[in-house]
Amino acid sequence: MPMNRDAIPTVLRCAVTSRELPASPQQDDQPLDVERLREGFPALQERFDGAPAVFLDGPGGTQAHASVITAMTDYFVRRNSNTHGCFATSERTDAVIDAARRAGADLLGCDPDEVVFGANMTSLTMALSRSLGASALGPGDEIVVTRLDHDANVAPWLLVAEDIGARVRWIELDPRDCTLDLESARRAITPRTKIVALGYASNLSGTVNDLELLTRWAHDVGALVYVDAVQLAPHRLIDVRALDCDFLVCSAYKFFGPHVGMLYGRRALLQPELRSREGAAPRLRAYAVRPADQRWETGTQNHEGLAGATAAIDYLASLGGHGDAAPRRARLARAFQRIAAHERRLVDALLDGLADIPGARVYGITEPAGRDRRVATVSLRIGALAPSTMARALAEHNIFCWDGDFFAVEPTRALGFADDGGFLRIGAVHYNTVAEVERCVGVIAALARRESA
Ligand SMILES: Cc1ncc(COP(=O)(O)O)c(C=O)c1O
User: Helix crossing, 303-318 with 328-355: angle to 10°?
Assistant: First the structure.
């Protein structure tokens, strides 16, 4: 029987619509078809006071792809249960979790048993840092954190250091372009270092850090490397094996999925019974109830969120254009090449446009030769204009951007704006267009002109 769309709630209408979308929107060897893929994001079709919005708030959270909404709705309709039962919905729930673990492994470049799910990156990091504190740290040991990171990859380590009596050392940022100061990294990483916590991409400046180098330095002194990849995940392919990190975390709501956190842990660390085969590693204490088949996942997971996370990863893979036969990891690799190429155009439009606004100062890499070392997350200030005033003015034009410190507490303080409103942050992802970015820059330019008149 045909469905009367007006009789069902908006969210289900989105889900119905998504079933009618083409399965694979990309052809091989073509740039991203952004106009077409935008049709798959219900929020981009939504009207706010009668007009569509420009979503330049991606670093705070991206819009969900329709297939994600469908998968989550489908979970509740056809699979909703707890795990390991002998009946259909429970068996389907087990399959949803297994599928999510396989999808997470393809996204991160690891094996499914190295993927741990949790509420979000912050909760996973709080839990893991506590385990590392109890297992791998003693008084006088050292933890290295950076001045560029989101507080979710700083505060948990400060708290653990305080609990254990460990010492915290800092990798400073270079305020000229918001890159990490490698000299200070050299000094911070010492033979006493046990953990180095690094951000992959800054949620303030968009800087992509040279983690291969820093991971090597950390491993040279026998330290474990914990990577926050929350801001990199929507923009670039993550490869934990190539990076050789020990842990890496990200969040599906930053890559077009639901609010679910995902952690990679090297097998020898997550599963101590395999230690002897895979080399020396500390026996990590997991804070888990008895019995727990996945020691690192506490309580009942967000099953509908896991179904949505799998759909988000499949959506990203569909941008790879290899067709369904190629392995998902290969399609993801191609997808992220296309995403990076499109986002480079967005970065150029944004930075070149802002460079023409008198008084605008961007905090991050700006010179064209360095722009591949950043993602499309741009924080700025203009003279004495309050960032909140700029964000409100943009919102009046239905352009959604964040202002403040975005929990990048240390960098905002280091740059001198902790008590002065922080920054205006414009964050583009692959569903944004150059026209949207230019519209945003146009509104900011008009504001700047009004301010200086
Ligand atoms: C770089 C970075 N790390 C960590 C987080 C925290 O992620 P979650 O909300 O999943 O805890 C964020 C959120 O904005 C972030 O941008």
Answer: 80
Pocket, ligand 1, Cβ cutoff 6 A: 59, 120-122, 150, 152-153, 199, 203, 228, 230-231, 251, 261
Number of domains in the chain: 1
Helices assigned H by DSSP within 168-231 = 182-188, 211-220
CA gap 268, 127 in Å, rounded: 18
- We report the CATH number of the domain holding residue 214 as 3.40.640.10
Decide if 250 is inside a domain. Answer: yes
- Model pTM score: 0.94
Q: How far is the centre of ligand 1, averaged over its atoms, from the C-alpha of 82 (Å)? A: 28
| Nearest alpha-carbon partner for 253 in 437, 59, 97, 410 | 59
Segments of the chain scoring below 70 in pLDDT? 1-29, 272-280, 292-293, 322-324
- Is the residue at 38 inside a domain? no
Query: For residue range 355-408, what is the model confidence (pLDDT) as tens digits?
Result: 999 999 999 999 999 999 999 999 999 999 999 999 999 999 999 999 999 999
Query: Considering only CA atoms, which residue is closest to atom 8 of ligand 1?
Result: 121
The whole-angstrom separation of Cα 390 and Cα 403 is 8
| The pLDDT of residue 6 | 42
Q: How far is the CA of 229 from the centre of ligand 1 (A)?
A: 9
The range of the structural domain enclosing residue 171 comes to 77-310
320 lies in a domain?
no
Closest Cα to atom 4 of ligand 1 = 152
pLDDT digits (tens, 9 = 90+) for 17-41: 444 444 445 555 689 999 999 999 9
Residue in 308, 336, 340 with CA at minimum distance from that of residue 321: 336
- C-alpha closest to that of 230 among 272, 185, 200: 200
Any domain includes 97: yes
